[in-house]
Amino acid sequence: MKLWKLAIILLVITIALPVTCIGVDMLSNQGKEAIVFLEHKNNVRGQLVSGHFPGKTLSGEEYTFDAERSVLTCRQNPGINGSLKVLVGTTQSLMQDAGYGISTRLLGVPSYPANVDGINIDGVLEDGTVLIRYNGSSIRLSPGQRWVKVYTENVETDDYRVKLTNTEIIKNNGKIRLEPAIV
Q1: Predicted pLDDT of residue 80
Q2: What ranges do the domains of the chain cover?
Q3: Would you say which domain of life the source belongs to (predicted)?
Q4: Are strands 63-66 and 114-116 parallel, antiparallel or unpaired?
């Protein structure tokens, strides 16, 4: 009987550990384990003008965030421990003639100042407001606020001409609490 119990325990551990991820639920400004979730998204849309543009392919999602349900799920631990101050999610996506696919990363920030994906994080206020610097601009984002920049670049070689429209978004999703979840 003891061998049977040991076999079941080992089976449960073998199945449960690989599929365990971290689920994150939004919180109000209270909660002793609350940290801020900041997202940096860059969407590139391409429009071929002439020739043949060798569009890229992206893949690899470390996390997904369901803003409607306020749930963050990650596929691996982004360095989460008791000293974590901010979670930063970065998303790169390609559309149309720029290529296709999406790639995400999730990184933990244990202290300030910190630089993640070109964003200098100077601190977080008690209400969850994030103080950052990006591309020469000082940005203050309260929970729920976002910063958006849209710009176009024309790329030309002997083989092609393509117009790339970049949409960058930095969004403060507010304070969240980490909770274990099974995916």
Answers
A1: 57
A2: 2-182
A3: Archaea
A4: unpaired
